[in-house]
Structures are given as structure tokens and as C-alpha cells.
């Protein structure tokens, strides 16, 4: 039995296989999130098998229009992942229990018999799994850059692609005693009476990813401007903008309801502003000057 454990936002996922031909080792930023063997909250078995298109996979819940589809099948969920380079048969299937705390990943053996063997939980399946675990009452993932300053304050810079998340991450990266949790995706959770922000392995162009966490101190919604300015937002506006930059399972009514309620609690506890900024080092000093507000 080969095993490894991954910790994402303090949720430990155990991945195991009995198949000697199947590698569990990942490369890149995911390696930073490996932890020593523990008693995982989520247990997944990986194997090589023979998938086909003959079997009806269940009731389709969602089609991404790209690499993956999701089906409901007798109380479980099935993700089918495809590649245009390989053929019409899925190259991988992930089958999970209703609460996503157990599952099985099957890689289509004929596709990998004589070549590269991919990491069984490689993106996007790892993020899809975490997305469902979070929406089941654990938290939410947002499109954001997360910075922990030298005093341990957690700054969340939220925005869609092009808003300046990676630019902000690079500017802070030059500062001493600062951690960049991610330049693209951050997980928020409410733990022990405080909101925490966690790094993820799913980085942006800056390729910055750190498994650390910090208390969420302030939320900034990024906007390019001709000077550095701060505009306070109403709670309703802040919730709407957080939700617009989040990754809930949009096909799940309960998941959407939890995510909205979660963001309502975030904006009650943490100051949220729109940050108009000029992309140079002066914005770092500008934000540091807000720490005493």
C-alpha cells in the first residue's frame, strides 16, 4: 500500500493505492501541501482500471463545457475527466460519497500503459473536491491574493483575472518577513471564533503558493486607478463582490445558500473596501498606513 496525505485549508486528504504501477507523487506547488501520514478527514483510493463510454454514468448535474462533467449516481457523485488528445473515453473518473469524505479515482489503463502516469488527484480534481467539502459547511474559496504582513495581519486582495492580484503579490513579495499565501486562490474558514485565510496550490502567473494560514484582518476589492484610494463598501455590496469572485458548486442549492451566509458573516467581522491602486511599491506603504484604523 502506497499512501500520502495532503492538507488543504486544514482539511487532510489521504490518498492510497495498492497498484504498483500508479504513482502518487505530484510535482510543483502541490508538494508543499504534503503532510506526514495522519488520520485524514477524507480518504481516497486510486487505481488503474478500464473506463468506457458504454455504461450510463448516472444523471448529469453539470457539464463544464471543457475537461470535466459531474453525475449523480445512486447517492454518490462521479466526475468524468476528458482530454481531446486521448479520445472519447474519460482518462480519469473520480467517484465520491455524498459528503465527499471518501472516494475512488480510476485512471483509464490503456491511455497510460506505456507512458507518463499522472498524479491521481491532479488539478482540477483536487480543487473540485475541496470546493464541495467547503460548501458543505466548512468555508469558501475565493479568487484572491493573500498576503500575511510582518505583523501577522492577513490581507485579502480580491478580484477577477486582470484585476491586479499577481501584481499585488509581487509588490509585497519584495517586503521582508512577508508571506504570499497565493497570488490567485485563497480559502476562507471560520475556526475558533475567527476567520482564517489559507494558501492553496492553485497559483496565478506569479506561481506563488504557501500552505500557511493567517487571521483575516481586512478585505480589499482591487481596481486599477491613477492614485491609491480606499472606498468603504456596504455589507450587501461586499457580499455580492465576494460571491462573484468565489468558487461554490453553482449547481448545489444548499452549497450556494451556505456560501452566501458564510460571506455575510465575513463582512460583519472584517472591514471590506474597494482599493483603487497604482501598480508600484507605494501601494504597499499605503496599505501599511491603514493598519491602525
Please compute the radius of gyration using only Cα atoms: 20 Å
Mean pLDDT: 93
C-alpha geometry? globular
Distance between the termini: 54 Å
Going by helix content, strand content and strand pairing, the class is alpha+beta
Uncertain spans, ≥5 residues at pLDDT below 50?
Answer: none
**For the report, how would you describe the main beta sheet?**
9 strands, mixed
* Main sheet strand line-up: 3-1-2-4-9-8-7-6-5
Helix content: 10-25%
Compact overview of the structure:
By secondary structure, this protein is an alpha+beta fold.
Plain-language structure description:
There is one protein chain. The protein contains 6 helices and 17 strands. The protein has a 9-stranded mixed beta sheet. The protein has a 5-stranded mixed beta barrel with strand order 10-11-15-14-13, surrounded by 4 helices. The chain is an alpha+beta fold. The longest helix is centred in the last third of the chain and has 17 residues, at 253-269. It has helices at residues 109-112, 125-135, 165-173, 235-244, 253-269, 282-288, and strands spanning 2-8, 11-17, 34-35, 42-49, 59-63, 68-73, 76-83, 87-96, 102-108, 140-148, 154-158, 179-182, 185-191, 194-199, 213-224, 229-232, 271-277. Helices cover 20% and strands 39% of the residues. The termini are far apart. The model has no long low-confidence stretch (mean pLDDT 93). α4 packs across α5.
Amino acid at each position: 500500500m502506497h499512501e500520502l496525505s495532503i492538507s488543504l485549508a486544514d482539511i487532510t486528504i489521504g490518498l492510497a493505492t495498492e497498484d504498483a504501477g500508479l504513482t502518487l507523487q505530484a510535482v510543483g506547488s502541490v508538494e508543499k501541501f504534503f503532510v506526514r501520514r495522519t488520520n485524514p478527514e477524507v480518504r481516497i483510493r486510486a487505481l488503474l482500471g478500464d473506463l468506457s463510454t458504454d455504461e450510463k454514468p448516472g444523471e448529469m448535474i453539470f457539464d463544464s463545457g471543457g475537461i470535466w462533467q459531474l453525475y449523480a449516481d445512486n447517492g454518490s457523485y462521479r466526475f468524468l475527466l476528458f482530454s481531446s488528445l486521448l479520445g472519447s473515453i474519460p482518462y480519469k473518473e473520480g467517484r465520491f460519497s455524498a459528503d465527499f469524505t471518501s472516494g475512488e479515482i480510476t485512471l483509464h489503463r490503456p491511455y497510460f500503459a506505456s507512458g507518463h502516469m499522472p498524479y491521481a488527484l491532479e488539478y482540477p480534481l483536487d480543487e473540485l473536491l475541496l470546493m464541495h467539502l467547503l460548501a458543505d459547511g466548512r468555508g469558501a474559496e475565493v479568487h484572491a491574493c493573500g498576503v500575511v504582513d510582518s505583523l501577522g495581519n492577513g490581507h485579502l486582495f480580491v478580484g477577477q483575472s486582470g484585476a491586479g492580484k499577481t501584481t499585488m503579490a509581487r509588490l509585497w513579495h519584495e517586503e521582508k518577513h512577508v508571506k504570499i499565501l497565493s497570488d490567485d486562490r485563497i480559502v476562507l474558514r471560520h475556526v475558533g471564533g475567527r476567520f482564517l485565510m489559507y494558501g492553496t496550490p492553485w497559483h496565478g502567473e506569479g506561481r506563488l503558493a504557501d500552505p500557511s494560514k493567517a487571521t483575516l484582518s481586512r478585505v480589499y476589492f482591487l481596481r486599477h486607478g491613477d492614485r491609491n484610494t480606499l472606498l468603504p463598501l456596504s455589507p450587501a455590496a461586499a457580499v455580492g463582490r465576494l460571491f462573484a469572485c468565489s468558487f461554490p458548486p453553482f449547481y448545489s442549492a444548499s452549497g450556494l445558500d451556505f456560501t452566501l451566509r458564510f460571506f455575510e458573516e465575513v463582512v460583519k467581522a472584517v472591514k471590506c473596501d474597494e482599493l483603487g491602486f497604482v501598480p508600484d511599491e507605494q501601494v504597499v506603504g499605503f496599505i501599511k498606513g491603514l493598519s491602525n484604523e
